[in-house]
Design goal:
homodimer; 187 residues; alpha/beta; globular
């Protein structure tokens, strides 16, 4: 058994991250995450999902895109990879756990699936910003997003994570339409 | 931004995997997963959780242990790393997706948290075998296991994943007692 598990992100993503503007508000942060999702579709480098983690001033900490098929890894979702990248970069497994009150925001092009929903709880984020709803994803594609607790927003908010959704929802939905038009596989 | 995310498992785990016996039934599979969890505690190589994926004949495909703190990665749970390892080894992102009816079993020392619960849905496993319950974990440690759908077992079973729990439950609980006795951190 190999003791190393390596997941690779596309080179274009590193370039996009290096030139990311400061994103001062919810719309700017979602716009960046949606652009990553759309670019991932156009580059055929993975599924139609993008996510980005910003600090409280809107500076990008890390970004992720869906890499399930290229990386042969069902867990390689955009949000999870953004969290992993941000934690490595900051050197702590809970982003907001450094005791100085610094806040972190996860912007994701579509509502997190069951797995990434759970992952949010321990990542140390303070705000979750969502573009497309799960019902949009399921109407526009064949992706199964999995079951959530009935009060999934309340469960996050009780753990200190603010949720705002429907941010640039139409732009976020356009990614799934483009993915379908290009014949991208659902899995 | 680094385009590579690497997670490392302990060397002792590779040795344990290389010498794993064939595990023909639920108890043998759980015994192996629990032994990994206990070894992870004794070696101080991560949190008190272990998981293993077997094929239908009980041959080990891959194993994982909790590596959150050593790897600075809140997602590095035993089940997720076992899934990732198995998918890499077999070269497909859905383990049972090769169309020949082969079945895969995930044995985990404790009920999956919210994140790993969701991850099960896309990993391509057919059976989920559980040792300790979440209520045991929360009674014996300070770990928050996160919220699940009310009918979490039914949601898996409707997706073709059989769930059996309370397998060697006492042995599984002993891992958390040992972890607490050694003063292991909850996070």
């Amino acid at each position: 058994m190999d003791t190393r598990i390596e997941i690779t992100l596309p080179d274009w993503l590193a370039e996009a991250a290096a030139t990311a503007p400061v994103c001062p508000d919810d719309e700017a942060r979602l716009r960046f995450a949606i652009a990553l999702a759309m670019r991932n579709v156009e580059e055929r480098s993975g599924g139609p999902f993008g996510a980005a983690i910003f600090d409280g001033e809107g500076r990008l900490v890390a970004a992720g895109v869906n890499r399930v098929m290229p990386e042969t890894c069902s867990a390689a979702h955009a949000e999870l990879l953004a969290m992993m990248g941000a934690q490595r970069r900051l050197g702590r497994h809970r982003l907001n756990g450094n005791g100085n009150g610094e806040r972190f925001v996860l912007a994701t092009s579509a509502q997190p699936c069951s797995q990434c929903y759970g992952a949010c709880i321990w990542a140390g984020i303070d705000e979750l910003l969502i573009g497309a709803r799960t019902e949009d994803v399921m109407a526009l594609s064949g992706f199964d997003e999995g079951p959530l607790p009935a009060d999934w927003i309340g469960e996050l908010e009780r753990r200190g994570i603010t949720v705002r959704r429907d941010i640039l929802r139409e732009e976020a939905c356009a990614v799934f339409r483009r993915y379908a038009a290009l014949g991208g596989p659902d899995y």
